[in-house]
Specification:
The chain has 309 residues and is an all-alpha fold. The protein is built from eleven helices and three strands, in the order βααβαααβαααααα. Helix 5 packs antiparallel against helix 7 and helix 7 runs antiparallel to helix 8.
Length: 309
Amino acid sequence: MADVNHTAFRPGTFLLVGIPGLEKFHLWISLPFFSMYIFALLGNLVLLFTIVREQSLHKPMYLFLSALTVADLLLSTTTVPRMLAIFWFRVGDISFGACIAQAFLVHFIFVAESAILVAMAFDRYVAICNPLRYVTLLTHSVIWRIELAAVVRSFCIVLPIVFLLLRLSYCRNRVIPHSYCEHMGVARLACTSIKVNVLYGLIVALLLLGVDVVFIAVSYGLILRAVFQLPSAGARRKAMSTCTSHLCIILLFYTPAFFSFFTHRFGGHSIPRHVHILLACLYVVVPPMLNPIIYGVNNKQIRETVMSM
């Protein structure tokens, strides 16, 4: 007779455990996460309000930044409140449908934000390497089309993940050793083969997001070459300041995300699970918290606009 733990069915609910192995520290862990979440909310809302309110900021760079701000707000709000409920009240139950929806949103926002960073790299490339065509190339209608394309691309890439998860037969084990639902964390509870899920995840990470990273790297390589050819030291410093801010955000976005992705698939035995999960939790709150700080502090126009409000 088959073991009951391997009987295939679709569970009504899953149980998120938070950070496995660190359950007794959940209350203490929640304090910095709560603080970072509040800072992320306030910082991004202030930044978004400033860009929307100030007509002089309705320029390509700031419009792309506002899209990044919206993505950050959605990413942190999709995950952190549920995380805090687990840390504070041990409320880890989540319905099957809500779990699939959360997994979709987390990956959808990640892919969309990657596209936004590509657009921001292109914006800086045109502004520094081809400034005479900047206004004619990046009109408001072009910017809206780029942002719409980012949303459509993300939807088309991530929607198959929903069907890949729905097609699986799940075991009696409904415990997800994580603080939020994501594709492979849910798929690993299945009794059937998840090779297609693993393969699709690798294709998305290596081909699509890898192309994004290569495009960004090439763009900034060309930007840096152009910056060092500028005749004015002041112009070089201004351009380098902007590029440094963008590169910091790109590193904050991709480094923990790819580390979490590859360790989840290939480094599960060599890296403690709580380290992987803790990093995945930090990823959804640290970049959203730091993005408005980096832009607000380093961007004189935004800083002066906020101070005059």
